[in-house]
Amino acid sequence: MSCTGNMQTKINLFKVACLHYESNPVAYQGRKLDRKELLSLQKVVADLAKQSMMSICADEGEAL
Length: 64
Description:
Layout: H1 7-19, E1 26-28, E2 31-33, H2 35-59
Antiparallel strand pairs: 1-2
């Protein structure tokens, strides 16, 4: 948003756009995933990364 023009109109249009937002499926490895599935997959990957880091730190005798 620029500093020129009617800022309140721009804010109102932005709010309308947010209210009408609908997420689209995302193609990932040949599958279409909705937002909920994608967030679930992201959590699985983050958990696996955390487990891996904890394992490495435990092997080296360090705390994470």
